[in-house]
Amino acid sequence: MIGVGKMKQYSNVLDKPLSKGKQEVSLTAFAFLFSELVQYNQTQVDNIAELERRLEDAGYAVGARVLELLCNREKGNRRETRLLGILSFVHSTVWKVLFGKVADSLEKGTEHEDEYMISEKELLVNRFISIPKDMGTFNCGAFVAGIVKGVLDNAGFPAVVTAHFVPIEGQQRPRTTILIKFADEVLKREARLSQ
Amino acid sequence: MAAAIYSLYIINKSGGLIFYKDCGTKGRMDTNDSLRVASLWHSMHAISQQLSPVNGCSGIELLEADTFDLHCFQSLPGTKFFVVCEPGTPHMESLLRYIYELYTDYVLKNPFYEIEMPIRCELFDINLTQAVQSDRVALLGR
Fold this sequence. Notes:
By secondary structure, chain A is of the alpha+beta class. Chain A has a single domain (27-193), classed as Trafficking protein particle complex subunit 3 (Muramoyl-pentapeptide Carboxypeptidase, domain 2), CATH 3.30.1380. Chain A has helices at residues 27-44, 48-73, 83-99, 142-154, 184-193; strands at residues 105-108, 115-120, 159-166, 175-182. A four-stranded antiparallel beta sheet of chain A has the order 1-2-4-3. In chain A, strand 1 and strand 2 form a beta hairpin. The two termini of chain A are 35 Å apart. By secondary structure, chain B is α+β, with helices and mostly antiparallel strands. Chain B has one domain (5-140): Beta-Lactamase, CATH 3.30.450. Helices cover 38% and strands 20% of the residues of chain B. Chain B contains four helices and five strands. Chain B has helices at 31-51, 92-107, 122-131, 134-140, and strands at 5-11, 17-22, 62-64, 69-74, 80-85. Chain B has a five-stranded antiparallel beta sheet with strand order 2-1-5-4-3. In chain B, strand 4 (69-74) and strand 5 form a beta hairpin. The longest helix of chain B is centred in the first third of the chain and has 21 residues, at 31-51. The model of chain B has no long low-confidence stretch (mean pLDDT 88). The chains are: A alpha+beta, B alpha+beta. Chain A: Keywords: Endoplasmic reticulum, ER-Golgi transport, Golgi apparatus, Transport.
């Protein structure tokens, strides 16, 4: 970064670059805002699949913006073109900016070639949320799945992204797994590129 | 041997029981009895506020009986938290404060909770169960 390590004196305050500022926002404020987002969308739908889709759409818009921002800020206007590159970009760079930490794990699906999973023991958006029993397998992580989808789609890696609860042995709370299933064209291109 | 907590209640603004938890073997109550205790306490609390000779009284905070103590904490919006425990159990005020904190976190921030309605939140239950364990309560007294 330019100018790191020495403090330059600016005579005119307008010449001074804007500081990056505090990078974190209040978790409480976020939790209430997210809770409102879920509650609002709940009034607009009549089934759970629809609610999931709406949360995903809300996340998609975030993902598209985050990709632009981070490619510019962290990657010097470059973006990843390879599958593993973009996945680790999501797993580390995107996660760190959005949630203040790297995701707990990034794995390749064992059954299918085109599936990858990002797992998080305690997803930030789910920190205060208990899903009622009658909502079945619904996961508010759909919002995060939407973010991931937004990033991947706009980087040229179309994929279907879903959020699931996965129980862990010996733990009361299940973890959340973001399942990424890439489109055929992505895998074909990847195969061609690695020749 | 640490003194025991018998049971824990949360009542809403209008005196309805929205949460009840048994913590020990003593003083167990069926649903009807616990509802009765809740609305009784709500009225007594309101009456005590009116009858108090002191201006600006906020209601009963502690009721001491031969066989139990009842500690009550009322939040600003009017939700009351009270705990029934063995006489002389320490740190109950801080436990109630902590339970209020858990309530604001895991109940009020949960999009699926309807305000003033009975509390059914898994995360609240998990954290509450941990909090009322006697060794945890002692830590609150620091």
